[in-house]
Amino acid sequence: MEPIYSNSCKYTMENLLESSAATMPKWYKPYCYAFCAVFLALAVYGFVKGSLMGILFLIFAAVIVVVYWRKTVASARTVYKHNMEKYGQETETRIFFYDDSIVGKNLQSGTAVTTEYDKVQSIIETQKLFVLKMSINMVILVDKNGFIGDNGADFADFIKGKCPN
User: Fold this and answer.
1) Residue whose C-alpha is closest to residue 5's, from 94, 120, 135
2) Each residue of 61-72: pLDDT tens digit?
């Protein structure tokens, strides 16, 4: 049986960073931005009043930004480092989308995993990827430029129609 879609994706640091940022909990980014905005407003107020507290609030705002980015980068770096240690190169996958299932094959290990569409909890579209977040702590990366064949333009509608969640 031929797959409806086939995709090749390399787990580069760039792709892992994009995936990591996209899969952060929905509350995390607005939470960080809100606190950063509050601290910046307090910093401005402190500077206007001539208080040294403005510097302290400016530092708090900077720390929140750093923590947000470090969490994103640390997650991506952990996966990248693991792949490099295990395979000595960036992991490359082939994802095959059939009518009733998704088959992912890791080209470095030769292992394949099959899953059903109802296991996909969310589909996150980023600039270069479709990130399929599974019900378990796992994601499938689909490179928008990695479709084998020229039917990639229809993939977004296909995957949204196949995933009931």
Assistant:
1) 94
2) 899 888 888 888
